[in-house]
Write a structure and sequence with these properties.
With 169 residues, this protein is mainly beta. 6% of the residues lie in helices and 27% in strands. A hairpin with an 8-residue loop joins strand 1 (42-43) and strand 2.
Length: 169
């Protein structure tokens, strides 16, 4: 919103777009909202032709959250990793775990609200995919490995307090 352009008005006169004549910018009457759309431009390091750059935060409408105990769920990204030799790739899900809590992974290719399904997982990158729930023996980062890629690369992880519903989902 602060850089000039080579646009011309109806009479052919060069018109530099500035904040003072930008109808979208001047239409924002709240001072805080107006300040939130301003970008500070800086020269790109190492260039000789005057390139400038700006940085801004992109808000996607989704905010990953840390789990809240004693029980609940979180949505978390998975990272593609190699699987066992000659086998399918795996997707690593790293979550903060608490001693005694049970953890389950759910995935859904359509991300529909009613069709989440439990995904079996392994505790190692190359181990057997052999469980649907795992109780953490200690607090810290818990790595779970699944074979099924989630839509948009996000998985739903449910966690339950010690002793709550220890069966297979």
């Amino acid at each position: 919103m602060t850089s000039a352009s080579n646009a011309r008005d109806l009479n052919g006169n060069l018109w530099a777009t500035q904040n003072s004549n930008d109808m979208v910018y001047t239409g924002i009457t709240d001072t805080a909202q107006r300040a939130s759309v301003l970008l500070d431009y800086t020269t790109v390091p190492g260039t000789t032709t005057g390139e400038v750059q700006a940085t801004w935060d992109f808000v996607s409408g989704f905010t990953p959250v840390e789990p809240t105990y004693p029980g609940g769920s979180l949505v978390i990204a998975g990272a593609s990793v190699s699987g066992p030799v000659g086998g399918n790739p795996r997707f690593k899900i790293a979550i903060p775990a608490t001693t005694g809590y049970g953890y389950e992974v759910y995935g859904n290719p359509t991300m529909g609200a009613l069709s989440w399904s439990a995904l079996p997982f392994s505790l190692t990158q190359t181990g057997a995919i052999d469980r649907n729930i795992y109780t953490a023996p200690s607090s810290g980062t818990l790595n779970l490995y699944v074979e099924r890629k989630a839509a948009k690369d996000f998985y739903y992880v449910s966690f339950r307090m010690p002793g709550a519903n220890t069966g297979t989902p």
